[in-house]
Amino acid sequence: MEVDNKRKHSGSELEQEVLKKIRPQEPNYAYLETVVREKLDFDTEKICCITLSPLNVYCCLVCGHFYQGRHEKSPAFIHSINENHHVFLNLTSLKFYILPQNIQILHGNKVQLLNSIKFAVYPTYCLKDLESFPKHCFDLSNRVYLNGFIGFTNAATYAYAHSVLLVISHMVPLRDHFLLNHFDGQGEFIKRLSMCIKKIWSPKLFKPYLTVDNFVAYLKVKEGLNSNLIDPRFFLLWLFNKICLNSKQLKSILNQSCKGKVKIAEFGKELERSISVTSNVKIRPFWVLTLDLPEFSPFEDGNSVDNLPQIRITKLLTKFTNSKPTSTNTVFELTRLPQFLIFHFNRFDCSSEHPVKSRNQTLVEFSGELEILHVKYRLKANIIHVVIKSSCADEKTANGDERSHWVTQLYDEKSEKWIEVDGINTTERDGELLFLNETFMQVWEKQD
Ligand SMILES: [Zn+2]
Question: Which pLDDT tens digit goes with each residue over 68-98?
Fold first, then answer.
């Protein structure tokens, strides 16, 4: 309380004036020792815990709680007196204050501790940073993690969202746009989405995993995300459409990077007489190409879960690469192969009473590379479906179906390694064995 003591002894008004000017630049740095970064969590909704207001909210950097205001009688002011907690951060302006004295810490950017807190609330990047990504980073407990390849809490409920957020944050043109720009003026949806992606790539995480419960809750309550029957494909398509509606720039990046086109030609009876007259030709754009698996039921004779059928991915693709009509007299032809080709393997019959239990468990064989119509692709991400195995009754859904869980496998080009993200855990995986899982979605990147 050096500043206050000085004030008591200061004689003239002039001196008081000088002190007033100096005060904001000389906060009591001893207070900074009371800051506990381990208690800070900026993934939660930024509202005052007393008034529930989202306006003018400060985080107490000693206990991590959010309080409104700075003026006398405000929740933050009262908290500082009652609890003897003195260092606060305004969550919108990212300015630091000492309360109740109401002194701004003006040179906070010279203090590493405060900088790291600012970065945790709002990570920022420059082009040069991105060149070194992904890189090994250390959290507050000195645990090593690879930025971009991080886990998430609450996977039992939100694993579908984790998979999709990881996958889109690994599409480099999209990632770079999100990391290098500010979206404060672009509406809440884009702002919140960009924050998730900025945090996924943060090299300065306090903990090596994130929580996006708050983001998904926001999507459900404010953006109309239907929480029934959600899987990663549904969520990805929903998110892509939402992005296109909210940002012209991002729409153009998505169209450039992810939109493919397929020509669908339906033939009439004439085909049988070898007169190839098409009766109907359509060009359909797509974000995700659905590949149908051959019919298989684990409950039929001769089929057991231990003896799952396998099919090569190239065989599934012949529908789109073979110019001969299918049994329904339709020819599918890929006319635009995007930079990121996203496949969906159709495992669930949504009309079934138990879509998970009765799903198609056929294994899809693939390697890390694929050639489609003379274009080379490299597998970047593999989202797999896992059934939560448990005898516990509440692990099943209300109608007795099994429960789905999603695990994301991501390729790190730098180390040429596969990393699996399951909940908060990340594990290295053998690329040769990835196909032994129930692949549900894949992202392939075009190679130059
Ligand atoms: Zn506090």
Answer: 999 999 999 999 999 999 999 999 999 999 9
Q: Which residues pair with 345 in a beta bridge?
A: 291
Q: Taking the model in full, what pTM does it have?
A: 0.89
So what's the pLDDT on residue 4? 42
Q: Which of 60, 113, 50, 110 is nearest to 85 (CA)?
A: 60
Tell me the residues surrounding ligand 1 (ion) with CB < 5 Å: 60, 62-63, 85
Instruction: Report how far ligand 1's centroid is from the alpha carbon of 97 (Å).
Output: 13
Ligand 1 center–CA 80 separation, angstroms: 7
CA-nearest of 152, 377, 345, 314 to 232 is 345
Distance (Å) from CA 187 to ligand 1 centroid: 31
Q: Note the maximum CA span of the chain.
A: 109
Helix 188-200 to helix 172-180 angle (10° resolution) is 110
Which domains, from first to last, does the chain contain? 2-121 (3.30.40.10), 188-446 (3.90.70.10)
CA 109, CA 168: separation in Å to the nearest integer? 32
| Strand spans (E) along 287-437 | 288-292, 310-312, 330-336, 340-346, 363-365, 369-372, 375-387, 404-412, 417-422, 425-429
Classify 171 as helix, strand or coil.
Answer: coil
Under the banding of pLDDT at 50, 70 and 90, the label for residue 8 is very low
Rounded distance from Cα 52 to ligand 1 centre (Å): 16
CB 314 within 8 A of CB 419: no
- Percent helix, strand, coil in the chain (nearest 5)? 35, 25, 40
